[in-house]
Design goal:
With 304 residues, the chain is of the alpha/beta class. It contains ten helices and 16 strands. Helix 9 packs parallel to helix 10.
Length: 304
């Protein structure tokens, strides 16, 4: 199954010509999971190759405007496009109340079901094929970081061993690969007899707004991709600390400690018309660092 990350909004504070505010979509097969929904996110979808009708879940990191003020318009846009399937919205405590207020604003009433969920730090929610784990970020309001981790895949199929055991090629191969036991000439063959060790799926971690934080390091450990905010360059470290944000250098240090494979920097301050300074700063610490830009598309491939 293919998995892509689409950066729909990579700026912080307010929209600019170069960057819209926070929104990151993960497309896994035919499902889209959205993390944060800054103002204008539905228009960002329209300018991308994605369909917002494929969204199953929205995860909000925290309730600063540049991370959630797109929700009312987004919900209404889905309504005007005749959405029928339910939409789940997850976020910190208060999400259920905020979503309830949005859908009772008075000027429209969604015809599809919207289910809101308050989450706690450390919570883990299991879905088909993956789970979402939360951790408390270190911001100036309560904020959650999220990690999407796929379920383990079956180990590699040993065709030679299967043939030695007298298993004919075809449906019985597939059943064993899918974890089923079979019977051959009165003998039970279990999957472990022809499969190697289970293989890890992909892991993607999204920090939300945060200062450098051990909670994020633990949550992100071993991720294929870490998406970490980098609002400022290191010359503004004091301001970053004051407002609960990170510099590009600090984000790279988190990535290095967490032993991730790639780092993408987001939540870029509007003061940076050219963010190369931030990327260069991060690369000095963690070479596999990149500043994300709106409509950047990243494929995360399975390891063999």
């Amino acid at each position: 199954m293919q998995l892509f990350i689409y950066f729909l909004g990579t700026g912080g504070s307010w929209p600019t010509v170069q960057r819209n505010v926070s929104a990151t979509a993960i497309k896994r097969g035919g499902e889209i999971i959205l993390f944060d929904c800054g103002e204008g996110t539905q228009r960002q979808f329209q300018k991308s190759k994605l369909s917002y009708m494929q969204i199953s879940k929205i995860f909000i990191t925290h309730y600063h405007g540049d991370h959630f003020l797109g929700l009312p318009g987004f919900i209404q846009t889905l309504q005007l496009n005749d959405r029928q399937r339910p939409l789940h919205i997850y976020g910190p405590e208060g999400t259920e109340k905020i979503v309830d207020e949005i859908i009772h604003l008075g000027y429209f009433k969604p015809s599809y079901e919207i289910i809101a969920h308050d989450l706690k730090a450390g919570e883990k929610i299991k879905f088909e094929g993956y789970s979402i784990e939360t951790a408390k970020a270190c911001h100036n309001v309560f904020s959650l970081a999220y990690s999407l981790k796929e379920s383990k895949r079956p180990g590699k199929f040993n065709k030679e061993k299967a043939i030695e055991l007298g298993i004919p090629e075809g449906p019985m191969f597939r059943r064993l690969q899918h974890g089923e036991s079979i019977e051959i000439n009165g003998k039970i063959i279990v999957p472990s007899m022809v499969l190697g060790e289970p293989r890890a799926g992909r892991k993607i971690t999204i920090s939300g707004d945060t200062t450098p934080c051990n909670n994020i390091i633990k949550l992100a450990y071993g991720s294929d991709v870490l998406i970490h905010e980098a609002t400022f360059d290191s010359s503004m470290e004091d301001k970053a600390k004051e407002y609960g944000h990170s510099t590009a250098r600090q984000a790279a240090e988190v990535a290095k400690k967490a032993k991730v494979e790639k780092l993408y920097l987001t939540h870029i301050s509007p003061r940076y018309k050219n963010a190369k300074l931030l990327e260069d700063e991060a690369k000095q610490i963690f070479p596999n660092s990149f500043v994300a830009h709106d409509f950047m598309e990243v494929e995360v491939k399975l390891k063999k």
